[in-house]
From TrEMBL:
This is Alcohol dehydrogenase. CDD domains: FDH_like_ADH2. SUPFAM superfamilies: GroES-like (SSF50129), NAD(P)-binding Rossmann-fold domains (SSF51735). The keyword Metal-binding applies. Its cofactor is Zn(2+). It comes from the Bacteria. The keyword Oxidoreductase applies. It comes from Streptomyces cyaneochromogenes. Belongs to the zinc-containing alcohol dehydrogenase family. Keywords: Metal-binding, Oxidoreductase, Zinc. PANTHER family: NADP-DEPENDENT ISOPROPANOL DEHYDROGENASE, ZINC-TYPE ALCOHOL DEHYDROGENASE-LIKE. Residues 8-343 form the Enoyl reductase (ER) domain. PROSITE patterns: ADH_ZINC.
């Protein structure tokens, strides 16, 4: 079969790899139909995730058909169409018993495309299949479902739920790439009074408006003042950090009101200053987290019922064998306008890169 293989920083290719097989009785093998590329995959290609060994097939999100299951798998069987979660869960360890699947100590957590071969291939082995794949209804297309493998549960759990968004709140989302946009879409489910999107890119701010942001602000033009003006000087009830740089995190702490919540979703590669000399008196709650995907069944039901739109985030589609071109488009998002690229499925609109 073919798979997208990491060969070290700056080196990767779509190439022949061995077909996966069952290793444990809790495994399933899935024929991949639809996949997407995550910003984390770009970090891996840059060498920012040293745990990923050269020779690893990348990817941790997919939709496909189960072709083989181990003897202990009970929830799916060959022929079932499934969503493969970005998080694998053993279901038995102390963390899994608390639905903290991202912290699984029984051979799960984020392992696909990280510690073992992932989903950007024609077939993939999924350990602990009972809790790590989700059967799909016939009403949900692959392009809609695949975004529920990672970015939507991440935005909802680590941003919206950790931030404790409530009806009537003012919610600020700083950084409206795919995760920030998914945070806007899922925050709307909880009926805040207003959602304010903050970013540097005009195209992303327009996408935020289309997904339900009530106001937008250029990050270079004092968005803290806009928040203050909208809230009579109080600040936002919830601020979701979806960038992962010190400047954006510190901006979030300036936007939040006393008693409010800052929910950090962004992956930080550099230290950020925590201004406790200003925050200690404000009763502010700051949360961090890796997605657990405990919300995935709920989000799947919402999407199948037409209550949650996901495919609006998809800007580019490719056939599976154009994985390298898809990575180029996604990696040059500032030039291509890419939000999410999806590979596979039935319809493909291959987009040429801008001339050098």
């Amino acid at each position: 079969m073919k798979g997208f293989v990491f060969h070290g920083p700056g080196h990767s290719s779509w190439e022949d790899v061995p077909d996966p097989g069952l290793k444990d009785p809790t495994d399933a093998v899935v024929r991949v139909d639809t996949v997407t590329i995550c910003g984390t995959d770009l970090h891996i290609l840059k060498g920012d995730v040293p745990e990923v060994r050269p020779g690893t097939v990348l990817g941790h999100e997919a939709v496909g058909e189960v072709v083989e299951t181990g003897a202990d798998v009970r929830t799916v069987r060959p022929g079932d169409r499934v969503l493969i979660s970005c998080i694998t869960a053993c279901g038995r360890c102390a963390y899994c018993r608390k639905a903290m699947y991202g912290q699984c100590r029984g051979g799960g957590g984020w392992i696909l495309g990280h510690l073992i071969d992932g989903t950007q291939a024609e077939y993939v082995r999924v350990p602990h299949a009972d809790l790590s794949v989700h059967a799909l209804s016939g009403t949900l297309g692959g392009k809609d479902a695949v975004l529920l493998a990672d970015i939507f549960p991440t935005a909802y759990e680590v941003g919206v739920l950790n931030g404790r968004v409530r009806p009537g709140d003012t919610v600020a989302v700083v950084g409206v790439g795919p995760i920030g946009l998914a945070a806007i879409a899922t925050a709307r489910l909880l009926a805040p009074e207003r959602i304010v999107a903050v970013d540097l890119a005009a195209a992303r701010l327009e996408a935020a408006r289309q997904l339900g942001a009530d106001a937008v602000a250029d990050a270079r033009e004092a968005p803290e003042q806009l928040i203050a003006d909208l809230t009579d000087g109080m600040g936002a009830d919830v601020v979701i950090e979806a960038v992962g740089v010190p400047e954006s995190f510190e901006m979030c702490t300036r936007m939040v009101r006393p008693g409010g919540h800052v929910a950090n979703v962004g992956v930080h590669g550099r230290p950020a200053t925590l201004h406790l000399e200003e925050l200690w008196i404000k009763n502010v709650t700051i949360t961090t987290g890796l997605v657990d995907t405990h919300s995935t069944p709920t989000l799947l039901r919402m999407a199948a019922a037409g209550r949650l739109s996901t495919s609006q985030l998809v800007t580019h589609t490719f056939p599976l064998d154009l994985m390298e071109e898809a990575y180029d488009v996604f990696g040059q998002a500032a030039d291509t306008g890419a939000l999410k690229v999806v590979l596979g499925g039935e319809q493909h609109d291959v987009v040429a890169l801008p001339a050098a």
